[in-house]
Design brief:
alpha/beta; Rossmann fold; 6-stranded parallel sheet; 4-stranded parallel sheet; 41% helix
């Protein structure tokens, strides 16, 4: 099934939810080896029905913040055999404990699910052969520590063009170094980025967030981006647009205390102006600001919790071992 998801993400979600079941069953029928378990996004509730009909245990994988789904009625989850979270226990302990009390099957926080194993321990350093280092990493290598604001608005949804004009102008006029990953906003930088900015069409997000020169992340608060910034210990400027992004931003600001909220702007008189944005960015990246210093310390604590969870014998590492043991021993059948 082919679908132009970047052009119509809501339509893509609808197609996956309503038209994917039959092709998926056809795929199962073609497999030579028996399927011991299915791991499926909780959003795809039809997968649980497929698994139950075929006597295949299903692990429902929450790919968004745990709290977001906990506040909603998800009737099909109770029919699964396992529940997996991309979060880590220490990131959402009260919610995970509450869910454990309401489900009779195993729950496993396995996160933060970020591709940390792909990180090169020397990724912050320029090599002798700069041809092998992407331009954006070469640029980051030349910037002072914690001086760069990384800006990424997500892959599918964005603010209005009028608001984007203000954001671009505000960031550019702030006098703060920035790396902007653009899906289409590059044309907005017709006047250039100045000496302090770089605009690229794509970058390795986790590698950038873990770079020593990156001191802040302007994000739409998608859960994957949120987890990657938490793993990297980078404070966030939260600019949510839709779905779980608003609750994710509350997690960032109120629970973890590692971010500030960008004031919500709309068309017309309610736009967040370039002057407001420039002032916000300047304050957020001010290393001498007491509030910023405290926020960076909190971000470091969250980073340590994330890395402890995925370390050998950490909570998530142990949970993954338990889950694989359950599957291999066929407990759910």
């Amino acid at each position: 099934m082919s679908y132009p998801r970047a052009k119509d993400f809501p339509g893509f979600l609808e197609a996956v939810a309503t038209k994917m079941e039959a092709p998926f069953e056809q795929l199962l029928d073609r497999l030579d080896l028996p399927v011991n378990a299915i791991i499926a996004d909780t959003y795809l509730d039809w997968v649980i029905g497929v698994g139950n009909r075929r006597n295949i245990p299903v692990a429902s994988l929450w790919t968004i913040q745990t709290l977001y789904k906990a506040l909603k009625s998800v009737s099909m989850v109770s029919k699964a055999q396992y529940l997996l979270f991309t979060s880590a226990y220490k990131l959402e302990p009260s919610v995970i404990d509450a869910l454990k009390m309401n489900f009779c099957f195993p729950l496993y926080p396995l996160g933060p699910m970020v591709p940390y194993f792909e990180l090169d321990p020397n990724s912050n350093l320029a090599t002798s052969d700069d041809q092998k280092v992407p331009e954006y990493l070469q640029w980051l290598n030349s910037q002072p520590k914690n001086s760069v604001l990384y800006v990424s608005m997500g892959s599918f949804l964005s603010v209005s063009s009028a608001q984007m004009d203000e954001i671009v102008a505000g960031v550019r006029n702030s006098g703060v170094r920035f790396l902007w990953v653009s899906r289409g906003e590059k044309g907005l930088f017709e006047d250039g980025c100045g000496d302090l900015g770089l605009v690229v069409p794509w970058c390795d997000k986790l590698r950038v967030l873990c770079h020593r020169s990156v001191g802040g992340f302007w994000t739409h608060c998608g859960w994957n981006s949120t987890l990657e910034a938490a793993f990297a210990g980078v404070p966030m400027l939260a600019s949510p647009i839709i779905w779980d992004q608003t609750s994710n931003s509350k997690k960032i600001m109120d629970d973890w205390k590692i971010g500030w909220r960008v004031k919500q702007g709309f068309e017309g008189e309610n736009l967040v102006t370039r002057e407001e944005i420039a002032k916000l960015v300047q304050s957020f990246m001010d290393k001498e600001n007491t509030e910023v210093i405290e926020m960076r310390e909190k971000a470091k604590e969250v980073q340590e919790a994330c890395q402890a969870a995925i370390s050998e014998r950490g909570s998530s590492d142990s949970n993954l071992d338990f889950f694989l043991r359950y599957i291999s021993q066929g407990h759910a059948k």
